[in-house]
Amino acid sequence: MAVMSGIVLFCVIWAMVFMIALPIRVQTQGDLGQVVEGTHAGAPEHHHLKKKALWTTLISMVLWAIFAGIILSGWFTVADVEDLLHGDPTPIGGIDG
């Protein structure tokens, strides 16, 4: 895996984990009973973004290490994915020759 591929893999993992973490522990204005006039009751009051970004980074590092290890070990390759998606290639002359 090239350096740029590793960075892209980390960014994709980070974004996915962050999207999962966003709704966790959100306290809305409606939950707290302090709805500001002109805003929706579902607007977040306490979102804890710094903690979520830190936890997302830590979890993403672990997941990235696992995925990078699998990719670099050769245990699972692009050819394996192609075989799973398309099956074994058919010879040019067909099955009978």
Report on the structure:
The chain has one domain. Helices cover 59% and strands 5% of the residues. It is built from four helices and two strands; from the N terminus they run αβαβαα. Strands 1-2 form a two-stranded antiparallel sheet. The two termini are 38 Å apart. The model has no long low-confidence stretch (mean pLDDT 87).
List keywords for this structure.
elongated; mainly alpha; 5% strand; 97 residues; two-stranded antiparallel sheet; 59% helix
Concise description?
The chain is mostly helical and 97 residues long. The chain has one domain (3-86).
Low-confidence stretches: none
Residue share in β-strands: 5-15%
Distance between the termini: 38 Å
Total individual domains = 1
In the sheet with the most strands, the strands line up as 1-2
Helix content: 55-70%
Let me know the number of strands. Answer: 2
Morphology call: elongated
- Overall SS class: mainly alpha
User: Major sheet, described briefly?
Assistant: 2 strands, antiparallel
Using only CA atoms, what is the Rg? 23 Å
* Mean model confidence by pLDDT: 87
